[in-house]
């Protein structure tokens, strides 16, 4: 019978560090993926009830950056680059009192019709093109509401 030779295993610190780093990387990747699914997955799979319009928030953020940020600012404080020359100053969407005092329909109407049509500043221009895109208009309302946080 041949003799059994036992080998003593030597710890490999580089391999162990590499394995731990790989496990950490995979775990963080899975966590990020789960967070993305929670944040974006529910809106992507949501279906509209009959007569309900699902807001297109992604496109609304892009449009807000183009049309609204110059006056209302990127943080909703009415401090955009064009606001310095405006009188009256643009609405501060971050104002909690204002947010509580206005309905979603009023926000959408002001965006679509402009300030003058709503008894507000005539410096707020109308956006008649949004009549044909109610999902984008609803998305802009959501963007305005996001500033109340």
How does this structure look, described?
This protein has 149 residues and is mostly helical. The protein folds into 2 domains: 10-46; 57-146, Cytochrome Bc1 Complex, Chain D, domain 2 (Orthogonal Bundle). 52% of the residues lie in helices and 0% in strands. The chain is elongated, with a radius of gyration of 27 Å. The mean pLDDT is 86.
Comma- or semicolon-separated keywords:
149 residues; mainly alpha; Cytochrome Bc1 Complex, Chain D, domain 2; 2 domains; 5 helices; elongated
Ordered list of secondary-structure elements with their pairings:
Blueprint (H helix, E strand, L loop, with lengths): L12 H33 L11 H16 L23 H6 L2 H10 L20 H13 L3
Helix pairs in contact: 2-5, 4-5
Quote the distance from N terminus to C terminus.
Answer: 79 Å
Number of helices: 5
Mean pLDDT over the full residue set: 86
Number of DSSP-assigned strands? 0
Number of domains: 2
Q: Uncertain regions: pLDDT < 50 for 5+ in a row?
A: none
Instruction: From the alpha carbons, calculate the radius of gyration and give it in angstroms.
Output: 27 Å
The helix/strand class is mainly alpha
CATH class of the largest domain: Mainly Alpha
Which geometry do the CA atoms define?
A: elongated
Q: What is the CATH fold-level name of the largest domain?
A: Cytochrome Bc1 Complex, Chain D, domain 2
* Share in β-strands: under 5%
